[in-house]
């Protein structure tokens, strides 16, 4: 009997299209502007004319780059130290408060850096009034302090969160074989080393790319230099060439930590940490408590200044009246980013998941994170500044694309983490019963992924709300965003307006996190 | 009949099925034994079309279902798969979980099959609940109901008695045995304890990468 027969027409390919082609929309929206930017910059090199034969003041810029790198490294080091101290605290007396702390830090992630700057300006002024006259109000030191405080939640969440995904038995075994202090010194650093390195790299890159805080505290960093270059010359080639050292350094660091990303973000589940009962000596407990204390302080400073200002409350109505269009513009941009970005994020996450989380896939995903915001804005401007694409160039779609370019990778990472946690047998069970993969996606996969999709969308919304670097270049004439207005007010010293706008931002952040609290647990996978 | 011809399946460097050949005759009950991690589950997943193969082919009732290039969709193979764990969808009720595979069938047929299966598995009072509200034993019975309600021709069971107490084991064995006799299905049961199915008089085979001995 001939058992061999060609498969009939009902044979289908093994994977459906997002798992084969899901990366293309992401590449098109995120990488195409950057690739075109670099190609055009390269083509423009022969046309660069400099009568002195020197393109830039290399000595001055090398020195500026060096200072900026030292600045970013010191911020990253500070944040990582605070993160490790918090991780230690979580193992000991902080077990019960850890989730509350994490939730509070999550909220503070979205507070724009200029709001942190304002908070610290006020507090430092207060310290000077009560007798600490020597405290500076500008310069590298105070900028380091404010930048560290602004980014502390990022580092603490990643590093202390790294403790929560460890295998509980590793901790118990340590308690059986040595003192708890010895555990902190000998074992804990190794256990959370991937988290420390990854958090350090992320904070380092974010610091290098931020110019809001440095400009408010009157220091010149390389990111400001890039922005100034474009503002003065409007030369794409000069801007790209100037940003090349920063981009190369950031890309190198990113490439090094890419191997750690799966360990840090894509494996493990948050575990119940109660009952470990680590008992540290008082000096260790006190030292470790510095970590969460600093983290809470970093959150409290901007919030206290916002909420305790009487002038702010008095002027709030007027502030809102004057800023309502900017507020609606910010909300519209972020909402559009979610609508356009969510399908792109899902498709990209499914593509990576189907292919396996390789370094190449992660670089495709996270490479754009290494681009300064100015460069993202410049790339979009030059790509769409044509007659045929005027409908994008002169609309809110351009800042939407800017937000996607900067933050869509993080949304993909969140959804990918959720996908990896998903029991694949849940999908297989559906595939065994339903031949239509689109239906399986709609009825089974998407509902199971819903928490991850919502979290990724929320992350993109919150980060987009506080974005400045690319927005300032891409928002069309006649429009402005809350952060642009806030930044301008801060420079002009209109403190009450700044506080009012900050209140609006914090209120928006808090309201957008409310659904998380009421998300029905019984539906969670 | 299920025929595996020179099927090769590897995970990176590790070859799990090495030119595997075997024929499962129609209406047979085969118990496959072997230590954990040797490839028994992989065999079932390849037959079900859930994993691709590097070489060879799988033929089910004269139809080639798996080759290196193509695979027939799992849902078109008329087979049921019982996983080690219930794999119920948490956002659907028990009723929705069970009826998922019958959504393309007429309403009357759906209700008829549902009534039959919930009666035989004693889960009538669970229909409105969600998986999170079920005990382990209830979840296992619902999972079986979801698999058996479509009346598959082939039934693949991957260590279905793991983590079950004696009473529940007996229940599952009875349900599978009744189904096998009533519907004349072809059953492939993977286990690392062949004694657990001895009461069903299966053909017991030991797994090895090139076939069953």
Features:
heterodimer; A: 525 residues; MetI-like fold; B: 213 residues; alpha/beta; Rossmann fold; 2 domains; 29% helix
Overall pLDDT level of chain B: 90
How many runs of DSSP E, i.e. beta strands of chain B?
11
What's the number of domains of chain A?
1
Whole-angstrom Rg of chain A: 24 Å
**Roughly how much helix do the residues of chain A carry, as a percent range?**
over 70%
Strand content of chain A: under 5%
Structural class of chain B: alpha/beta
- Placed side by side, the strands forming the largest sheet of chain B appear as 7-8-9-3-10-11
* Highest-level CATH class of the largest domain in chain B: Alpha Beta
Q: Element order, helices and strands of chain B?
A: EEEHEEEEHHHEHEEE
Largest sheet of chain A: none
Shape of chain A: globular
The CATH homologous superfamily of the largest domain in chain B is called P-loop containing nucleotide triphosphate hydrolases
CATH level-4 homologous superfamily of chain A: MetI-like
Q: What is the total domain count of chain B?
A: 2
Please write the string of helix (H) and strand (E) elements of chain A. Answer: EHHHHHHHHHHHHHHHHHHHHHHHH
Give an overview in words.
The complex is a heterodimer of chains A (525) and B (213). Chain A is an all-alpha fold and 525 residues long. Chain A has one domain: MetI-like fold. Helices cover 75% and strands 0% of the residues of chain A. Chain B has 213 residues and is of the alpha/beta class. Chain B folds into 2 domains: 1-78 and 153-213, Rossmann fold (3-Layer(aba) Sandwich); 90-151, no CATH class. Chain B has helices at 40-48, 94-99, 107-121, 136-148, 166-183; strands spanning 2-11, 14-24, 29-33, 55-60, 63-66, 71-72, 79-82, 154-158, 186-191, 203-208, 211-212. Chain B has a 6-stranded mixed sheet with strand order 7-8-9-3-10-11, sandwiched between helices. The A-B interface holds A 1-8, 10-14, 423, 425-426, 428-435, 437, 443-444, 447-448, 450, 522-525 and B 3, 45, 48, 50, 52, 57, 59, 62-65, 67, 70-76, 79-81, 83, 85, 87, 89-91, 100-101, 103, 130, 132-133, 146, 150. Strand 1 (11-12) of chain A pairs antiparallel with strand 6 of chain B.
